[in-house]
Amino acid sequence: MNTLTNRRLLITRPRAQAAELGERLTALGAQPILFPTIEIAPPENFIALDNALAALADYHWLLFTSVNGVAAFWSRLDPSGLREADPKGLGLKIAAIGPATARALTVHGLAVTALPETFTAHHLPKALGDVRDQRMLFPRGELARETLADELRKRGARVDDVIAYRTLPATPDPHGLTELRRGVDAVTFTSPSAVNNFVRLVSGDSRYIDPARIRRLGPDGIPLPSLGRAVVACLGPTTARAAHDSGLPVDVTANESTLSSLIAALQNHFARPISLIQENRWIRSLARCL
Description:
34% of the residues lie in helices and 18% in strands. By secondary structure, the protein is an alpha/beta fold. It folds into two domains: 8-37 and 170-289, 3-Layer(aba) Sandwich (Rossmann fold); 41-168, Rossmann fold (3-Layer(aba) Sandwich), CATH 3.40.50.10090. Strand 1, helix 1 and strand 2 (31-34) form a beta-alpha-beta unit. Mean pLDDT is 84; it is low at 79-86 and 275-290.
């Protein structure tokens, strides 16, 4: 039995990246609702990234922890005149955090050298092996944690982590907001920034406060939506921690940072008896916010 049939599932990913998850949920009979909370923008300037690309032949490794990092990196190869340069010919090794990032690289003809067994930044250094005296280029988002670069430096690598893109709050989507007010079965998060901006959009604060208990109006003058008994589902432990810190009770955490893992976790959750879904879990979250 497919437990996602007719489930209303909110997708908070950037609109340009929501299609795959939406299509896969639709194929399972669910009703995906797009409510982008973040958008991807270029960095304030490309100086650091362009300088690194100009010295691409000096690096031993390229590190990618997101599809956005791949897109930002590749977009600067054209104006820099480096599209014709064969990274494999330069002796570069390429590491990806997971299969989605790896697929984005292979689309451009780049062969992935290292992929961790568990698809998180915490496990990526192990997949690289001995990195002493290895020079690495890490194109990352402005809000990305520096844990990966710090760990690699501790292992003796020389890491240039350059800002390749920014993650900005999205303007509330009117249709998505209307559907959220109607009620959803689950809200899905795939990044900490999606969590933080969602909470600000629906709560008007950095921590979630249920509008059903404390009345607040949205930008359209209509009360902000209450999540009620909606399931909170997160992609990976880092996103789950961000949700907890924002006052959201996390019901579902995908063990791996893949959409397949998130979907499977949702299916398993909705297979449980409805009596196990605790509405009063919101009361504990509310207490943390007051």
